Amino acid sequence: MLTIENGAEGTVVIVGRLDAAQCPAAQSFLDRVQGTVTVDCSRLEYISSAGLGVLLKTQKRLLGSGGKLRLIGVNRHLQDIFKYSGFDQIFEIEPAA
Q1: What is the 3-state secondary structure (H, E, C) of 48-91?
Q2: Cα atoms in the 13 Å half-sphere on the side-chain side of 23
Q3: Does the reported pTM lie above 0.85?
Q4: Closest Cα to residue 65, out of 94, 29, 31?
C-alpha cells in the first residue's frame, strides 16, 4: 500500500511501499510537481527498482527545467538501496535523524 500526498511547507510525503504495483499512481502524482521538490521519505518502508525508476524519471524532468528532487528522512535501509544503485549520486539525500 502506498500513500503519496502534499505535506507541510510544499513537501511531498510518501508513505508505505513504492513497488511496481504502486508506480503508476506515484508517477501520476509526481508528473504534476514543478521546481525543486522535497520528498519526505521518513515513512517510506520499501522501494523497488520500478520505484527508483519513477524517482529517476521525475528527477530528469525537473532538472531539465531548473528544478530537482530532494529526498529527506531517508532511513538506513533505503540509504543502502540508493548507495548500491548509484542513486546517491543523482539525488540530494538527507538521512533520517
Answers
A1: CHHHHHHHHHHHHHHHHCCCEEEEEEECHHHHHHHHHHCHHHCC
A2: 15
A3: yes
A4: 31
Mean pLDDT calculated for residue range 62-89? 96
Which residues are bridge partners to 56 per DSSP? none
pLDDT over 90 (residue 10): no
H/E stretch holding 30 reads helix 23-30
What are the sequence ranges of the domains in the chain? 2-95
Phi, psi of 71 (to 5 degrees): -105, 125
Angle between helices 23-30 and 49-64 (to 10 degrees): 10
- Class (C level, CATH) for 2-95: alpha beta
